[in-house]
Amino acid sequence: MTTLPGATAVRRHELAAFLRHRREHITPEQVGLERGRRRRTPGLRREEVAYLSAVGVTWYTWLEQARDIQVSVQVLDALARALLLDPGERAHLFQLAGHVDPTPATSCPSITPALRQLIEQLEPVPACVQNSRYDILAYNRTYGLLLCDMDAVPPEDRNCLVLSYTYEPWRSSIVRLEEAQRLMAARFRAAMAGHLGEPAWKLLLKRLRAESADFRAAWDRHEVEEPHGRRKQFRNAHVGLVTVDHTDLWLGPQLGPRVVTYAPADDESRTRLERLHRIALQRPPRPTATPARGA
């Protein structure tokens, strides 16, 4: 969608006002600077924000003056850190600048308390919420032990593609790993066609190509695959082999966030998932806010 010139100017002025307001409400002490005796400016000076963000003072001044200049995602990230923006303010900053935030957030707007309660009530059926990049946004206790100890995985690595190609505990749990990897790469390519210019997608692709020769080989085949349910088998470290039916429950009309469920395909798998759930309940409580990535 093309942005009208007038709308672009409005966004520049909104961005300038937002930066100025945030700068004026951050004290030097909050960012580790000395206040000094002769300070007339409320909050931080422009040169202090420029210093903290590693950008030129003149360039930052132009930004607050709503000049027509280009702002990279790297600079926006530095400004967000310098101004101590919370997740909502950070998202607002990137939106005003016309960029997609490439850095995973600590919460996702699509993960409501009701949705989290829903996947918890599906126990002992493993369930999680994913986006079209395969980021794992939330999960219930049984899913948290299905393929690996998900709580032990750093938030920035909670992505099914990353785990399938680079994390051995997850890889060793998947029966027919090579087939699963090929299908995921093909679905990722199909989904990425609608997000080619978005930094988060490009960063994920760059990481996968750098860290996995198997992913490079799968990606270079240029296969595409649409999402659909299928039967899967996992070798669980706690209860053994389980056979499940994978179902995607989409949360909107677009192929974005979805609830992923793994219903047991036979009585033995149901019994083993129930046992896995009991094991999960014996573990210390997880934090209520699972680190997640934007949808």
Task: Describe the overall structure.
The chain is an alpha+beta fold and 295 residues long. Helices cover 45% and strands 11% of the residues. Helix 2 crosses helix 3. Strand 1 and strand 2 form a beta hairpin. It has a 5-stranded antiparallel β-sheet with strand order 2-1-5-4-3. The C terminus is likely disordered. The chain starts with a helix and ends in a 14-residue tail after the last helix.
Keywords:
295 residues, single chain, 45% helix, alpha+beta, 11% strand, 13 helices, 5-stranded antiparallel beta sheet
Low-pLDDT runs of 5+ residues are 288-295
The total count of strands amounts to 5
Q: Which bin fits the share of residues in helices? A: 40-55%
Category by helix and strand content: alpha+beta
Summarize the structure.
With 295 residues, the chain is α+β, with helices and mostly antiparallel strands. The chain has helices at 5-24, 46-53, 57-64, 73-82, 87-97, 113-121, 141-146, 160-166, 168-171, 177-192, 199-211, 213-219, 267-281; strands at residues 127-130, 136-139, 230-236, 240-250, 258-264.
Layout of SSEs?
Elements lengths: L4 H20 L21 H8 L3 H8 L8 H10 L4 H11 L15 H9 L5 E4 L5 E4 L1 H6 L13 H7 L1 H4 L5 H16 L6 H13 L1 H7 L10 E7 L3 E11 L7 E7 L2 H15 L14
Helix pairs in contact: 2-3, 2-4, 4-5, 8-11, 11-12
